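Progress against Task 2.4 (sequence-to-structure conversion) is shown through the following example record, which the project officer requested during the mid-term review.
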Amino acid sequence: MDEQLRVGLVGAGPWARSVHAPGLADHPGTRLTTVWARRASAAQEVAGSTGATVAADWPALLDEVDAVAFAVPPDVQAKLAAQAAAAGKHLILEKPLALDLPAAERLAGAVAEAGVVGMLMLSRRFAPETVAWLAELRRLGEWSGGDAKWLAGSLLAGDYSGSPWRHEGGALVDIGPHVLDLLDAALGEITGVPAASRTADDLWHLTLDHAGGARSSCTLSMRLPLRPSVLEFAVYGRHGYRALSGRPSSNQECFTAFLDDFVAMVASGTTAHPCDIRRGLHLQRVLETARQRADG
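Structure tokens generated for the chain above:
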């Protein structure tokens, strides 16, 4: 782009401080201009470390930016992002899009009507090791199944252990979109959830059907005392067994790659991307199906 994209940041929690704010401030295609959060002191802390200003309120932030990045709970994101889209602002969104399917559908509709870029920060998808793994799977083809495990203790201790929406939604809502997205990208679109269960301490087991006939399974938890976390993804079929391996890229590295694509899309007027708003809506529908199946 000839000029940097002016981006406003909504939220001042751990993710905003460690990933969004430094990433937006350092990327050559973006300029973090404004921060707004429920607590002005928290917004000032984020803004002060990046040279951004603090918006007096939400409308003031919208007046000063070309795009908005969200690092807030899903229900807050769904409401504000729809307003930002209606104002013609491009969107950097977190997963899940919303806490329920109707809100996600309203947000997706607002983005489509406005014709703005709406991208979902599915961080693992932008990691170089993941890009290489998916490219090999597409090249070889004919995969019949897969398995994923994401087991962590992030709701027991750490930066996100005090997050009310994460405790309420559990592993399915927080890490579920990442796992579902990678299995979907590796094996084909998820078309059904034949089985889903969760234990009283939020250990999830899902079975997934994919277009083309593949079937996968995944296990999710954020309440296991594990350090480091267990992240495993693998597929199998005619060409054997292929696991996602290599040094996991940092969230900061993934966000930089995300911003590369986001800036290029805005500059070219393109709104379609593998991780665009439609992807977010598809994943929200799978989450809703899994939740209903478990509650069944």
